[in-house]
Amino acid sequence: MPAVSKGDGMRGLAVFISDIRNCKSKEAEIKRINKELANIRSKFKGDKALDGYSKKKYVCKLLFIFLLGHDIDFGHMEAVNLLSSNKYTEKQIGYLFISVLVNSNSELIRLINNAIKNDLSSRNPTFMCLALHCIANVGSREMAEAFASEIPRILVAGDTMDSVKQSAALCLLRLYKTSPDLVLMGEWTSRVVHLLNDQHMGVVTAAISLITCLSQKNPDEFKTCVSLAVSRLSRIVSSASTDLQDYTYYFVPAPWLSCKLLRLLQCYPPPEDGAVKGRLVECLETILNKAQEPPKSKKVQHSNAKNAILFEAISLIIHYDSEPNLLVRACNQLGQFLQHRETNLRYLALESMCTLASSEFSHEAVKTHIETVINALKTERDVSVRQRAADLLYAMCDRSNAKQIVAEMLSYLETADYSIREEMVLKVAILAEKYAVDYSWYVDTILNLIRIAGDYVSEEVWYRVIQIVINRDDVQGYAAKTVFEALQAPACHENMVKVGGYILGEFGNLIAGDPRSRYVPFCLMFTLLFFFSLVPCLLTCSQKLRPQSRRCCAAIARSATQMLNCSSELRVKEFHLQRFWSPFSQATVLEEMPPFPERESSILAKLKKKKGPGAVSVTELEDSKRESGELNGAGERGPDPSVMAASNASTPSPSADLLGIRSAVPVSAPASSGSLLVDVFSEAGPTASSGAVNDDGFLRFVCKNNGVLFENQLLQIGIKSEYRQNLGRMYLFYGNKTSVQFASFTTTVILDNCLQLNVQSKPVEPLVEGGAQIQQVLNIECLTDFSDAPLLNIKFRYGGALQNLTLKLPVTINKFFQPTEMASQDFFQRWKQLSQPQQEAQKIFKANHSMDTEVIKAKLLGLGMALLDNVDPNPENYVCAGVIQTKSQQVGCLLRLEPNAQAQMYRLTLRCSKDSVSKRLCELLAQQF
């Protein structure tokens, strides 16, 4: 609220505010407000000759009532009338009311625009500033259309006051952010850039914000700003604080402008002009030198301003990555902050050094601080600082210090925070594989990893160690011996048992010392497998053993299946175990697994999902391996372990596919969660009676709700569904395609793997006549976000034979989307708020279908989100917004799809307020294109 002075004479407003503050209850406040609203309404309606002072007073009261949280549905016209007043105070209140209460779609917007045009052409600097502030505050597209061409003229005019230039630059910046297609600089470009030479520092500060934003979108048009920015920065850095007395902040000359200039220069590569580049290097050296000088003030504001400039300068040095001397000096300067008493400085130093570690010029300088970083990992009180320390250790690791860093990270894992354990496990696994010269060390490291943090060791980690052991003959015996000893520990994690089951099943004979034997005393292993309810794994593993051992295991299997209530899966495996004792089975089916084909490490792919400073790109990893001799020119394996890069990841990009996990599961890995090894002896029946889950039609329904879910020679199942908020209704149509009656027809919805849904269904008719169709209705309620879909089991008798079919119902999390319309400004503001690495999922993939515009739009609309027009600066991109409605919470989601028709590729980016949802949606949607 504007200050109420004695000259204003608005005593009634002061009394009203005092009355509100003195109210003892909410009811009393509402009563007083309603009384005042009635009085104001009567004044506006009854007194046609109300003077400007009275209008101003009553409009101020309405504004105050609105700020208290009450709706105001009148007084807008009176506020618009105040805009035509020649008195500053009345015009100010009018603009203030308009900026706060008038909607961009209001019918009064045309009258407001006329008043603004009059003030902009009045050449009264005070009135012009008020008009520009109103345009910036409202920032609607209508205002951009009306004034986008007028404001640049005001900005570059020679007779415009400095205060108006500042307001015009910031106003134009706001309009460009909301409607970039309407703000076309064109002829004004060079004159706007030359504002960097303006004598008024306030104009330069405002103009550089505008130029930086414009340069990010159109760097070529504004590249002339580099030399001017360097010149202005040089003058600031080399000047004494007395030279810029009005813009000196605690003995630091123009710190905000200096930071903005350094940030602008990060939009461009190093200057090609030798003189400009030399001048910039001198500026950066001066900034680094000043950081070493004793502080001129003990105030925290002085150090904050000084360090802000220093960190921006270091960011620019890292961005250029071409000056070895500056990079090493920047590293040394950051090293001094690693033990600073300010937590924020330690955090920023660690974060910047993570980037420096990737530079060939400063990597060795970063490594000199390894002891300090290790100490920070162990002793820091703030978990975010500890996480940055772990990222830096990962980034500085190479062949010379790999064992030390891996050992320290393993040691810290025992007491690490739960929030960072999973990421640290992935980093330890990658470093152990990448820098393992001795594979026995790699095996020991992974087994220690499972022992220390077994709950956080994902399948990708222990699948990977199995791959490497099978592909390396020289480590198989050691791995079998080591894992067998690990299984004898008093406490043994389930993942250790799984690794042991696989490795001992394949290479147990190497422990016994007899190459022809496949027997080793596995009583301990079988006890552990049974204890962890991994009997299917036990049975599959036992098939690798020699006959006398298999008979022993078969007895255990019979006891296990009886104690576990005769699970159908276990009985099938027990039956297979009894059958495969023939010499033919031993010679063929029970042969050792062949080596796995090389592929990208799934551990690296999973780490890249974190998208943190420690996550290296696939191409960086491949380059480092070629440099160290681990990959030859053809991409073949060298003598050292390789985390192979995918062939389609050859284009380096800061936004590369950080989320697509290519499965690195061994070909003998489980298809079901209960078995470690694929049961190669499973015999599926020729008809639908096998009971296996059929999910062929599942993906077809991600972006549509109606169609045929399943069809074979007997049965056709159609589906029609509708969803509203967290509720859904699904109609299933079962059609008998034969002329024979289906008897004992039953359906069962299975929610064992999807407890986050509540599904209610009515039983169907038990008889389905030949050629007939019956209907079933499912009512679905989403309790919270979910990953797996419910299953539908269908049983019936056809010609006396029991048919058993299990389908995956197409109920995915996107079905509960509510479309959300958003303006461009609101979209990007929310996009920035969802900037945490765990909130974003991104995938780059090749188009599987035609990249037709209408098809893409139809699929995005079918996803359930609102397709937003005129939001993304690139008209070729697609932007969507929506909110997932569940009973317990709402999850906001934003989507951006960037097609590249020439390369036939897509880049899909999803940001959600819940991290698990963004990854799930990204994977689902990527398969639709």
TrEMBL record:
Q: Where is this region: Disordered?
A: 615-651
Asked if Repeat is a keyword of the record, the answer is no
| TM annotation in the entry | none
Taxonomy, superkingdom: Eukaryota
Provide the GO biological process annotations. clathrin-dependent endocytosis; intracellular protein transport
Indicate the segments forming the Clathrin adaptor alpha/beta/gamma-adaptin appendage Ig-like subdomain domain, all copies: 699-810
User: What is the designated name of this protein?
Assistant: AP-2 complex subunit alpha
Tell me the organism: Xiphophorus maculatus
